[in-house]
Amino acid sequence: MASTPMDLDEPSVAPSLNITRTLGINVPNTSKVSDVIAALRPTKLFQREDIKEGKPQPSILSIDFDDPGDLCMTSESDETIQIYSVKEGRHDKTLLSKKYGVKLAKFTHTSSSIIYASTKTNHAIRYLATHDNSFIRYFDGHEATVTNLALHPGSDNFISCSLDNTVRLWNIGTKQWTAKLALSGPTLSAWDPSGAVFAVALPVSGAVLLYDLRTYTKGAFCSFDMLKALGPAEPDAAFRGFTVLQFSNDGKHILLGSRSGGHFLLDAFDGSLKAYLRKPGLGTRRVAAGEIEGSIYDSSGECCFSPDGRYVLSGARKDLFVWDTLAAPSHNKVLEPLHVLEDKRESAVVAWNPRYNMVATADQELLFWLPDPHA
């Protein structure tokens, strides 16, 4: 691949990242993902200029976009939240959470407020106004590390998973949880695009449970046994730790990220394995959600669906891999990447902008990917 010029964010130089570059030249704003995905290139690299010389860059623990796709937010290991303007391609704001730490930061459906999990002092989830860095509310209840936050697609209600063996449902308007599910080792949760169903992943038992929001008190209405679903692809991969749980926006598939040699594309209706998305080369160094392994951080998501639900994008020790969910897998349901997007950096965290054809990846530095109009 020919080298691609990359803007480096510096205090004295703040080049504009015109969002029309995501669509290429003379391409309408309604460009399909399939028209531009092979042309994604690393385009804008951000380095923390406030880190003193000689000190390492902090690790980026999570990436999230607001609903309009105009803001990108990271939570970082130095107990800061960083907010970036997507259209301008610049750093906008630093928020501090030195007392409580921060991870799993997510925008609510209002771009000026966020929720995030604590990493020290206690296990509360915090609701913050970003315009003045003031707390609106604390959500108390968890007695161990929070491993996942999942915001409802149509409201600011959310789900949290924790190592205290509970899954809790919250209404953002009150500090008390509205429901608590006692489960064995729940680490990940996700809403379906309608907001009527939510899923919980339990790696200790190799299962994914589905709940109807209206009747969750009666228990899961469906359980996917991952060991049975995997078949010959990689039989022991169900127990290697899960990193991502996500529904596609068309509601047809569930993506279950794994520390194994691939990720799992499941049928959202019956849990059957549609394809084992094999990762060439080495995976990221992050451990699975909720795992503790020395000084290595757990994963908040190194793979994701494209907004149209057709593609899956995954980070690795180097390069980005793209799979087409419409492609036919081999006889043992293994699907090889359709594209390998070259980059020498590790992509331990990956997020796709919900509105624009751009992707953000990170390990210790945030990187914006845009389609190269000349590719």
TrEMBL record:
GO terms for molecular function: chromatin binding. The keyword Zinc-finger does not apply. GO terms for cellular component: Set1C/COMPASS complex. One of its GO terms (biological process) is RNA metabolic process. WD repeats lie at residues 139-180. Keywords: Nucleus, Repeat, WD repeat. It is found in: Nucleus. Its main location: nucleus. Belongs to the WD repeat SWD2 family. This is WD40-repeat-containing domain protein.
